[in-house]
Amino acid sequence: MSASVRNGNVRLGNLPVEPNAFVGRKDELTRIDQLLGRERLVTLTGPGGVGKSRLAVRAAAASRGRFPGGVWLVELSALTDPALVAVAIAQALGLADEPARPALAAVAGHLGDRPVLLVLDTCEHLLPACGRLATALLARAPRLRVLATSRQPLAAGGEHVLAVEPLPVCASAAGGDAMDGDTVGGDTTDGDAAGGDAVALFAARAAAAAPSFALTAANRPQVTAVCERLDGIPLALELAAARLRDLPLDRLLAGLDARFELLTAAGPARPARHQALRTAVGWSHELCTPLERLLWARLSVFAGGWDLEAAEFVCHGGPLGAEHVLEHLAGLTEKSIVTQEPDGTGPGFRMLDTLREFGARWLAELGEADDVRRRHRDYYRWLVRRAEAEWLGPGQRAWSDHMSTEHPNLRLALDTCLRDPDPTLALELAGTLWFFWFAAGHAEEGRAYLERALARGSGTSTERTLATWAHRLITLTPDDLDAAEEVAAGYARLAAARGLPPAARILPLNGASLAARGESARSAVLHGLPGPGPAGGGGAAFFKLTSHAVQAYLLAGQGAPARAVRAAERLSAECDKHGELWMRAWGDYYLGLARLGLGDTESAAGCARAALAAKWRIRDRLGTAAAVDLLVCVEAARGRPERAARLLGAAAGLWRRVGLARFGDAEATVVQREQRRRLRGELGDARLGRLLAEGLALDTRQTVEFALAEVPEGLS
After folding, report:
1. Which of 66, 156, 270, 491 is deepest in the core (most CB within 10 A)?
2. Closest CA to 374 of 428, 423, 313, 319
3. 161 near 35, Cβ under 8 Å?
4. 368 and 270 in contact (C-beta within 8 Å)?
């Protein structure tokens, strides 16, 4: 239904009456309004079903006052002949057919110098014609503005492109919690009360489809899960909400595994391409070239995102050469199938889960799913081997960031290995990831994968030796002394399996175990300066540095802070030779511990902050928590009990989030126990409790920022 706006006898537009409440999109509407004030051609791009048409109509209606010559919608989705685009515009403007005069000339003559907004909706299948026509009309009608919608840009001169994203599932506002009985409605619905615009849209459409439905605190987790599964795509949310007429919410959520079969809704008010989710995505598929479709299908094997190198390795083959992957990836990005985004190490790419699932179905129909998954697995096996080899070096921070970005793909590769009949694949990949599990704060996940891999059989292969050693390493805790010695023995077996010389197979963890048992003298004899360490992967170079770290730790714990300073400085010097950051931060930690033992609190504070900054930078959660613990001791020694108490509460939260079972208790560390006792005596129970709660309320980033802040003397 259209509503013609009139000024006397002159029609001023043909925008349709909106069928229901418009939800969210406040920022996009503001941005479009700003663009229409200064740009002459604005194109809204985005994947099918993301809400480009509805947004354009809403924005056009809000701009009527700026265009006294009229706001006109030209719907092009049903048009198949590019030569008829000008005719469709003329018809939308209500111009009589003039056989002797071309439609373009008639439209340009009608527009003249009048301030008019044309909305060209659904241009993607007629791109060249729409681009040429928009350019020609803008040249002939100086006060014309054009707002277009398309799954890819028109590529016309002066075009300004605004990408329309799916609706956010979570609210950006702090007060995003919904109350029991909260419902949404009205002309423009704000998503904040319901959690986010996606949730608000689903709730509004669900209430219209099933009047008994209301968004409540009880059902909000399921509604949020539906919105997340559907990527916040408005079309998918509206189709899903309509199914609540005949399905309960839990059945709807479970049925989204078959979303393309479930989400259909025919009706005259909905364009044919939007009557089913499969049709909407299929429309995009038809606009792609054959090689773009093939690449789309193969890209569906990635979890999360990918970079160009990964795409070239995994997706090449047959008619699609590796050297042509970038060209066709750019085509998919232009058509809004793929989104390009920075990932911290270079250009990254991502695909909405709904589009990924469509590609996965196409890949299965092509019969390529197993082959492409194997290439995905093998690429990440190669990447992890490269990362392990370069971990102890100047690229450590970059590798830490890259591995964190690739975490979903690492999980997928591990799962693929675990399904393979050859058990060595999972043992190798899970074991080679020791540095990621141990140094990047993923010990619990690593333990689970390693145990699954080790449970698949017995044997003495190099891969099994590596996995066994890695499992012992990441499950090691300060009070598990026997396990510490098992790590040393396991490392010797690993070094032997990798062909390292006998002198390179000694891992001096026994000294740490003896010291913890109270045999300090024997420990000091056994734990001398390390000799030349082993070379090669599997943690060899890592443990050359570890021996220095253990010595610094032992000396600090045995009340020899001056010797501990020298040991920590040796560790730092060795790390600097490698350009290594992770162990270097432990050197700063041990140096801070030793300086604190010498009574040099200012130097200790600087060392602790340096350790914290580095641990935070490379995502080492355990190291971050340990550094904050050290700062608790430093601030207490500096006579700042209130700041120490807040940090103590914040540190307790960090240990809780580390994910290691032994550190789940807020008082699991010596620092936590001893400082609580000391601060309770200085501050009293009530005041200490309040300050601990303030610290505990901080999230990890807030904790790090608070701990790193320089505080002048006299302030707590």
Report:
1. 491
2. 313
3. no
4. no
Buried b (16+ CB within 10 A) or exposed e, 153-191: bbebeebebbebebbbbbbeeeeeebeeebbbeeeebeb
Is the Cβ–Cβ distance between 315 and 299 less than 8 Å?
yes
- The CA distance from 454 to 468, in Å, is 7
Length of the chain: 716
Q: How far separated are the first and last CA of the chain, in Å rounded?
A: 67
Tell me: pLDDT of 161 over 70: yes
Q: What is the pLDDT of residue 621?
A: 80
Q: Output the pLDDT for position 666.
A: 42
Residue closest to 440 by CA, chosen among 694, 658, 168? 658
pLDDT bracket for residue 264 (50, 70, 90): low
Q: For 1, which DSSP code?
A: -
Mean pLDDT of the chain: 77
- For residue 283, what pLDDT band results from cuts at 50, 70 and 90? low
Residue 328: DSSP 8-state? H
Our measurement of the distance from residue 272's CA atom to the centroid of its chain's CA atoms, rounded to an integer in Å, reads 34
Which two structure tokens, joined as six digits, stand for 217?
């605190």
Q: Which amino acid is at 151?
A: R
Cβ atoms within 10 A of the Cβ of 213, count? 20
CA distance 382 to 435: 15
Q: What is the largest CA-CA distance in the chain?
A: 108
Higher model confidence: residue 545 or residue 45?
A: 45
The answer to whether the Cα torsion of 168, 170, 176, 177 is positive or negative is positive
Alpha-carbon distance of 318 to 457, in angstroms, equals: 37
Cα dihedral sign, 510-541-443-605: positive
CB 200 within 8 A of CB 193: yes
> Which residues neighbour 509 within 8 Å (Cβ) at sequence distance 6 or greater?
484, 485, 487, 488, 546, 550
Confidence (pLDDT) at 433: 92
Cα 154 to Cα 14: distance, rounded to the nearest angstrom: 23
| Lowest mean pLDDT across 6-10, 249-253, 338-342 | 6-10
- State how far the Cα of 637 lies from the Cα of 150, in Å rounded to an integer: 64
Strand 10-13, strand 5-7: pairing: antiparallel
* Rg of the chain over all Cα atoms, to the nearest angstrom: 32
Q: Which two tokens stand for residue 623?
A: 């190291």
Record the tokens describing residue 677, joined without a space: 């006792």
pLDDT tens-digit map of 286-314: 778 899 989 999 999 998 889 888 999 99
Q: Are 61 and 29 a contacting pair, CB within 8 Å?
A: no
CA distances from 243 to 99, 194, 207 (A): 48, 20, 11
Q: Please name which of 119, 107, 111, 120 lies closest in space to residue 141, comparing C-alpha atoms.
A: 111
180 pLDDT exceeds 50? no
**Chain-centre distance of CA 524, in angstroms?**
47
Give the C-alpha separation, 538 to 195, whole Å. Answer: 46
> Interior CA angle at 426 toward 420 and 427, to 5°?
140
One-letter amino acid at 707 equals A
Picking from 189, 58, 70, 180, the residue whose alpha carbon sits closest to that of residue 121 is 58
151: pLDDT strictly greater than 60: yes
For residue 326, the Cα-to-chain-centroid distance in whole angstroms is 23
Tell me the three-class secondary structure of 116-153, residue by residue: EEEEEECCHHHHHHHHHHHHHHHHHCCCEEEEEEECCC
pLDDT tens-place string over residues 342-393: 655 455 888 887 788 888 888 998 999 999 999 999 999 999 988 888 887 7
Question: pLDDT by residue (tens digit) across 641-661?
Answer: 888 888 888 888 888 776 543
> Would the pTM count as exceeding 0.85?
no
- The pairing of beta strand 41-45 with beta strand 144-150: parallel
Residue showing tokens 């196409």 = 362
